[in-house]
Design a protein that fits this description.
By secondary structure, the protein is of the alpha/beta class. It has eleven helices and twelve strands.
Length: 334
């Protein structure tokens, strides 16, 4: 084993904040090398210690679908991708039903995902009603468009405990959103007391090591409750489809590097879509999905790409994890 690589991995595991050059060295390890498997081992061990051995499954309900003006090239809702032609908001009854089903199945947190086309006020009303119906104390998490500090306070007042938000790969180039807008949302959420979950995503073969490093550092500097790495899912016929997709093995490599490059007090290390090799390499957070899904081309992803809680649990157990019973510890970390 190369001494320099082993030293970087050991230093990260022991609490050293890696430099960008050190992150680069880890990202460039050959996946058929001794260094690669040592990296995976140490990332897994660090993840286990950060979450006291209990992985989590979070459930997301997509509340609406339809063409979105943000035009993120990787998203099936992008108006430019012409996948969805009409705006659709699911019935409140179905949103509540799907949220309760995820909760009953053992999801440790419930997310409500909406496109930028759904009005913020309507989202708040839906969130309040779902929060009222949840029965086990699981946190309700918002996955919505960018917002101000006032918006963040409104989310808190609606009973929402945290947000999922990310500076995307290619932000401002393959999306219609400025990177600074994302960072302002991070700041607004933190100021209002909303916990942040984030991720280095959506990763494709078109992304170079330098951008992966940039987004890894942005994520860790946001002081989230979880980080991680997720791959871009190809939407057939779109501008990014010619690039194909990153392999699950490469994604496991990247998420292991993100884990080691992120301070240990960040308990969670996610990956998406759920897969065994990612969980083996240190992913301790997977998502079950219902309703709309920006990686899918149907209104009800649970009938297509979406995994249910049982399948996520099966993957985690297959990878040697215990799964937390009860409300998320990641979102109770602050």
């Amino acid at each position: 084993m190369k001494n320099r690589i082993k030293e970087i991995i050991e230093d990260a595991y022991n609490g050293k904040l890696l430099t960008e050059l050190e992150i680069k060295d880890l990202l460039e390890i050959d996946i058929c090398s001794e260094e690669f498997f040592f990296l995976e081992y140490k990332a897994r061990k660090m993840s286990e210690e950060a979450c006291t051995g209990k992985a989590e499954i979070h459930g997301q309900v997509g509340v609406n679908s339809g063409p979105c003006h943000c035009n993120c090239a990787f998203c099936s809702f992008a108006a430019s991708n012409r996948i969805f032609s009409t705006q659709r908001v699911e019935s409140l009854e179905l949103i509540i039903q799907q949220s309760l089903e995820l909760e009953k199945s053992g999801a440790n947190a419930i997310y409500l995902m909406a496109t930028a086309r759904l009005s913020f006020q309507q989202y708040l009303e839906i969130g309040q009603l779902v929060r009222r119906e949840l029965r086990t104390g699981v946190p309700l998490i918002a996955n919505v468009a960018d917002f101000t500090y006032e918006g963040a306070v409104s989310l808190r007042n609606a009973g929402i405990a945290g947000i999922y938000h990310a500076v995307r790969m290619g932000e401002g180039k393959v999306t219609g959103i400025d990177l600074k807008t994302r960072l302002r949302t991070f700041e607004a959420a933190g100021k209002a007391g909303l916990s942040l979950g984030t991720c280095v995503e959506p990763l494709g073969p078109e992304h170079n090591v330098e951008e992966i490093i940039e987004k890894t550092v942005i994520a860790r500097e946001a002081k989230p409750v979880f980080s991680g790495a997720a791959r871009r899912i190809t939407i057939p016929g779109t501008s990014l489809s010619d690039h194909g997709m990153v392999s699950e093995t490469r994604m496991a490599h990247i998420l292991a590097v993100v884990r080691l490059a992120t301070p240990r007090e960040v308990r969670g290390n996610c990956t998406h879509e759920p897969n065994v090799i990612g969980a083996v390499a240190g992913a301790n957070l997977l998502w079950a999905e219902a309703g709309s899904n920006p990686r899918d081309v149907v209104n009800h992803t649970e009938k297509n790409r979406g995994f249910d809680v049982g399948k996520c649990r099966e993957i985690l157990v297959d990878a040697g994890w215990q799964v937390l019973d009860g409300p998320s510890k990641f979102f109770s970390a602050k």
